[in-house]
Design goal:
This protein is mainly α. The chain has 7 helices and 3 strands; from the N terminus they run βααββααααα.
Length: about 140
């Protein structure tokens, strides 16, 4: 008989927080074997594979909703391969990631400009108070 494990055991074996595993199960992303007489969630060894797949897709930047969409098509087993759907989602994730990279590059440029324009203050050679309107008013 295959080993049955509680959500705590699954969490320890995968390194995934129990709260996340509950969410995954609620979304239908983890194979389950049901509940114990004490109403504990129970999982078989195949749940390890499910968690690994979800974790792998999360590491690629997919949201849980995107994963659920791909998983739903896969689990319905309509005869349509899941690969093309996943490819389309990955294309969207790639575009989203490119946008985030562009935003982060912009932030780096703003940091560079701030460091150039405030070099004296950042080196401790001048004080930021010189820019503070309340300090300038008090000194006037």
């Amino acid at each position: 008989m295959a080993e049955v494990m509680t959500i705590g055991t699954l969490s320890r074996r995968t390194g995934t927080p129990v709260k996340a595993l509950r969410a995954y199960e609620d979304m239908g992303l983890i194979y389950t074997v049901g509940r114990s007489p004490g109403n504990y969630r129970l999982f078989g060894e195949e749940a390890l594979w499910c968690v690994a797949v979800v974790s792998g897709l999360r590491s690629l930047g997919l949201t849980l909703e995107e994963i659920r969409g791909v998983a739903s098509a896969y689990l319905q087993d309509t005869g349509e391969p899941a690969g093309p759907r996943l490819a389309a989602v990955l294309k969207a994730v790639r575009a989203r990631t490119g946008q985030q990279i562009a935003e982060l590059r912009g932030r780096l440029l703003r940091i560079d400009e701030f460091e150039r324009s405030r070099a004296a203050e950042l080196a401790g050679l001048a004080d930021f108070h010189a820019q503070d309107p309340r300090t300038r008013q008090a000194g006037a």
